[in-house]
Design brief:
The protein is mainly beta and 127 residues long.
């Protein structure tokens, strides 16, 4: 006899805090990086690629790959995200279908732009 499926609250495999000053990204393998929220620029979650969120923060683009990432995007937008750690072993666990988790974190430097940004002193001001 098979046990009945037990409904449970989905687990969020990341930590939040009330107005954290920093966020920690741990790839679970070789690198843990702590970045200041004051350097946050943007987060992107493309509809045709729902398993990846890209965050521009400081001098980094942080790519988070995982499952059911909607709650994580809300924590980034808060910003209440304090820690996210990649847990690749959850990728093939069918009991975790309702959970939110990251399976891989990659750090990259943004590509340099061809057009330099104007400083505040160089912006055209109209009287």
């Amino acid at each position: 006899m098979n046990p009945p499926n037990i409904l449970r609250k989905p687990k969020l495999h990341f930590d939040t805090a009330d107005r954290p000053s920093h966020v920690t990204f741990d790839d679970g393998q070789r690198l843990c990086r702590i970045l200041a929220w004051t350097q946050f620029s943007e987060a992107r979650w493309e509809h045709d690629n729902p398993e990846t969120i890209e965050i521009e923060i400081g001098e980094w683009i942080v790519a988070l790959r995982g499952h059911n990432l909607g709650p994580l995007l809300l924590a980034i937008g808060g910003p209440t995200l304090a820690l996210v750690r990649a847990i690749p072993t959850l990728a093939n666990d069918s009991e975790r279908d309702q959970d939110t988790f990251v399976t891989a974190i990659q750090f990259a430097r943004p590509l340099p732009t061809l057009v330099p940004r104007a400083s505040q002193l160089e912006l055209p001001l109209k009287p």
